[in-house]
From TrEMBL:
Domain ABC transmembrane type-1: 88-278
Source organism of the structure: Neorhizobium galegae bv. officinalis
Keyword Ribonucleoprotein in annotation: no
Family to which the UniProt record says this protein belongs: Belongs to the binding-protein-dependent transport system permease family.
Localization (cell): Cell membrane
GO BP of this protein: transmembrane transport
Keywords in alphabetical order: Cell membrane, Membrane, Transmembrane, Transmembrane helix, Transport
Membrane topology, as annotated: Multi-pass membrane protein
Transmembrane domains' residue ranges: 21-40, 90-115, 127-146, 257-278
GO cellular component labels: plasma membrane
Gene3D superfamilies (UniProt xref): MetI-like (1.10.3720.10)
Main location, first listed in the record: membrane
CDD domains hit by this protein: TM_PBP2
Protein name in the entry: Dipeptide transport system permease protein (ABC superfamily, membrane)
Amino acid sequence: MRDTLLGRFLEEFFRNKIATGAAIVVLLIVLTAIIAPLVTPQDPYDLTSLVLRDARRAPGYVGTGGYTHWLGTDSQGRDLLSAIIYGLRISLQMGVIAGGIAFVIGAVVGCSAAYIGGRFESLAMRIVDLQLSFPAILLAFVIAALLGQGRYQLIMALIFAQYAYFARTAHGAASAERQKDYVEAALSIPLSPWRVVVKHILPNSLPPLIVVATVQVASAISLEATLSFLGVGLPPTEPSLGMLIANGFQYLLSGRYWISIYPGVALILFIVSLNLVGDQIRDQLNPRLRR
């Protein structure tokens, strides 16, 4: 039955050529990011391989190491193609880790509030609504500025800024599931509230959460790049896309456009492709949009 449903889902997904193309782009980027050490001519983390006289060279320049820098080099002499691929790898890690943890926290908070109800539901949802009243970038910026630069600090900032979206979605879905007969049947058996939430309510609330997850992973990647660009994200030693764009921003007026433009194009392509895939999944999982 699952195979049949999955087959129908994929068949309908691949009918949309734009979504199919976006999915191919996402898969290629993810695969390239995973095997980055095998496909890049230079390791951007290896400071011993950097040569300052190779800094800010135009695309097509043949560097000291003997290989061609097809996208040029940045202000530190790093091969820009290698830095972009590693930057996509970092952005993907940040987005998936932060989005995954925010997914779990938000789902537990939302489903628990819907199940328990009463004062706990009111308090939990008021906190969530208060967070949602502020832009995610503002919350992430404040938390990142307080915690300082670093991967773990940035992940915590992204989680704090995003879990409320999952909590609100999970609460709405779980509230509808809470009224159904199978939940009442589960309550008639002496099961713990945690077991009812995890084994009955949460699994049936997953479809809308999956849709939100695809959007929030793209949002996390965008937030990470923005925070790194503003100087409160990852440290300068890690070539995230936001940091690459920030490092080359000052050279735009001098004609060295490639240092910022190419990482920016890669970031936009990845985020737009993720959003297109997420929109198609949303359309297929939403019964109202299928009519």
